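Table S2 (text version). Query chain:
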Amino acid sequence: GNRYLGMLYGATARHSWSEYSPGPIWKLWKSFGIKDAKMIGYWSDDRIVETTHPNVKATAYVKDDKVLISLGNFDTGNVKVKLMIDWDKLGVDPSGYTLVAPEVANFQPAGRFSPGDEIPVKTKEGWLLMLEKTN
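Corresponding structure-token output:
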């Protein structure tokens, strides 16, 4: 499977089945505490995050104090998207939040986006973004 698009479904590459180890993703999952998060997929009527492009999907892993957002680009080209976050469903005030892309070896570089920024997403790839309070 595709290790970027698979994250939309809570899956990653299998160990020893591809050139990339899933170890760095597992490490992120553990540090985030994904086993205690509620997964809200892009297909859910209760989704809390969508994108401005119909072929870029977003799944949220929600905990009381943080959210991990998986973006996946199903399109045939590179695109830029903005996230549409339902702050009311999250129950938080959007001021003072930022999106942090933690560095994940052989997956993504470190980065930082404001919730209103355009985010570049390569074809058949994606991002793992932490929605974090900055103040």
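Notes on Table S2: The chain is about 10% helix and 35% strand. Residues 23-32 form the longest helix (10 residues).
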